Each structure stands twice: as structure tokens, then as C-alpha cells.
Amino acid sequence: MNNPNEGLLEPITADQAVAEPKTFAELGVASPIVDALADHGIVTAFPIQEMCLDLALEGRDVIGQAKTGTGKTLGFGIPLIQRIAAPKTDSYDALPSAAQGKPQGLIVCPTRELASQVATDIQRAGANLGIRVLAVYGGRAY
Length: 142
Known about the structure:
Helix content: 25-40%
Structural class: mainly alpha
Largest sheet: none
Shape: globular
Order of helices and strands: HHHH
């Protein structure tokens, strides 16, 4: 009989996070994203980001649960941007030409306020990569 938990990692709690926060560069985030975040005063990772970035940058599925304001958006947004901008290369100059003008990612949010906030955060993080972000929600024309 197959073990349904085979290949899954054990849950990590914020208490297990390193006391000294790491920078996004130390966590393997591409320099254009690191620079865009630094332009907004964001240099070191919150615990949830530190715990999930390695796995998410590898393309693994990650589930993160944390209170509001703890950094979840960039915890999943940075890997999304990085994997879209340069999925199989170390060159992060801009979105590959074959992908330009076509949707490359989808983030689903439960409220329009959260959708707007997430769109703003993703746009800021990807500002140096030429990505476009569009928040689409009910009650308004897109």
C-alpha cells in the first residue's frame, strides 16, 4: 500500500525559523527582484518567506498559514515572478519574448481589496522585469 504522505515534508513553524533573518539575495531570489524590493525598503525575509522560498523556487507546492501582515504574498509571489521571468535560465533581464502579452500566472483572492493589495505587491517585486499585473474582480470592467 502506498503511503499518502510519501515525499511530503514535515510542517515547519515560525518558532523553528532562524533568529537572524536572511536577505532575499541569500535565499536565492534573482537580483532584479531583490533590487525592486530594496527600492521599497524590503531587504530581509519574514519567517514565512524564509521557510517557503527555497521550496517554492524549486517549483514545489507549498502551503503557508500565517496571520495577516506576515509576508505570505511575497512568499508565493517571488517564486511565481522568478519562475515566469526566467524558468530555465539564470538570465533575468525581462520576460521571455514568447511569453510577452500572454497570461503567465493566476492568483485567486477571496476579496477585491486583497486582490488589489496582492497585485500591487507583485507589481513592485517584478518592476525590474517588465511584467504586467492586472487585478480582475467582480463589479468593475477590466
